[in-house]
């Protein structure tokens, strides 16, 4: 049994990113069919007259305000983490930093050092690019790079994954930071996706952004899972504390991963590059 499908936008579930995705919910015959979650947030009064949105969606700056400026740390030119001083958390970021307990969060608490700024390898831009980024108004698209500059009072555009290695390994345009003349870091993208700060990504920016761009924002996933959970007995919130895993896994290339997990090295197709001067076959 399957209910009529719905397209859900993460922005209506507390995620500061406009991201529409199709969700299909079904149930085995004889089991109750879960319902789709009702929207809980609205952006600039976008609610329909028949909807009951209750809270404003957090803004881009609600998500990024407390994150230290990556360009202030030379260490982030050659690695993706540094000890840093975070600013005061916002109502949106405090639960993601583990500073507030969310009673509706049934995930197991992770052990992590909240003084670490992770997944923040810097991008080196030319002076000309920085000038163009600064001259671009928030909410507009920079005309040369075609990068979207984030509006601190608005929400982020959809963060996309780009293409896989067998299709050229092209990177999707990364948004420009609302105030700094640079593209956002992987950590900043993760905040705009509603990932908690303990969650780490591959140290390579291309892989890190693909991991985020291919994923369902956690707050949206939780909203859907909460409705599915209603079809089962009441869950128990765990009091366990899970330690962080092996950080070396975050820097694996395909050869390392294939050797560790016993799969062929070409299980993920390799990047294909056109031969210079060749013509595509008809």
What does this entry look like structurally?
The chain has about 280 residues and is of the alpha/beta class. It has 7 helices and 8 strands; from the N terminus they run ββββαβαββααααβα. The strands form 4 sheets. A two-stranded antiparallel ribbon has the order 1-2. The protein has a two-stranded parallel ribbon with strand order 3-4. α4 runs parallel beside α5 (about 205-215). Mean pLDDT is about 90; it is low at about 280.
Which CATH class of the largest domain is shown? Alpha Beta
Given helix and strand content, the structural type is: alpha/beta
| Multimerization status | single chain
The geometry reads as globular
Query: Which sequence of SSEs, written as H and E, runs from N to C?
Result: EEEEHEHEEHHHHEH
**Spatial order of strands in the largest sheet:** 1-2
How many domains make up the 3D coordinates? Answer: 2
Number of helices: 7
| Total beta strands | 8
Q: Give the termini separation.
A: 44 Å
- Taking all Cα atoms into account, the compactness measure Rg is 21 Å
Q: Major sheet, described briefly?
A: 2 strands, antiparallel
Poorly predicted runs are 278-282
How is this structure best summarized?
By secondary structure, this protein is of the alpha/beta class.
């Amino acid at each position: 049994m399957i209910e009529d499908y719905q397209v859900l936008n993460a922005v209506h579930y507390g995620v500061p990113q406009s991201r529409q995705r199709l969700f299909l919910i079904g149930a085995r015959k004889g089991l109750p069919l879960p319902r789709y979650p009702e929207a809980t947030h609205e952006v600039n009064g976008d609610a329909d007259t028949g909807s009951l949105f209750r809270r404003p969606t957090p803004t881009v700056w609600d998500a990024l305000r407390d994150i230290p400026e990556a360009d202030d740390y030379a260490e982030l030119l050659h690695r993706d983490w540094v000890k840093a001083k975070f600013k005061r958390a916002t109502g949106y970021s405090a639960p993601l930093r583990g500073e507030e307990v969310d009673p509706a969060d049934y995930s197991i608490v992770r052990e992590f050092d909240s003084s670490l700024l992770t997944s923040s390898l810097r991008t080196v831009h030319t002076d000309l690019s920085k000038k163009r980024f600064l001259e671009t108004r928030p909410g507009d698209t920079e005309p040369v790079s075609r990068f979207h500059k984030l509006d601190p009072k608005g929400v982020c555009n959809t963060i996309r994954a780009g293409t896989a290695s067998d299709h050229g390994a092209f990177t999707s345009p990364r948004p420009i930071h609302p105030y700094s003349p640079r593209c956002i870091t992987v950590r900043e993208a993760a905040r705009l996706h509603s990932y908690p700060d303990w969650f780490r990504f591959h140290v390579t920016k291309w892989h890190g952004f693909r991991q985020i761009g291919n994923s369902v924002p956690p707050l949206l996933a939780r909203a859907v899972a909460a409705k599915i959970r209603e079809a089962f007995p009441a869950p128990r919130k765990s009091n366990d504390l899970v330690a962080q895993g092996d950080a070396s896994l975050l820097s694996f290339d395909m050869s390392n991963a294939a050797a560790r997990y016993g799969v062929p090295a070409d299980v993920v197709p390799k990047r294909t590059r056109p031969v210079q001067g060749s013509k595509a076959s008809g």
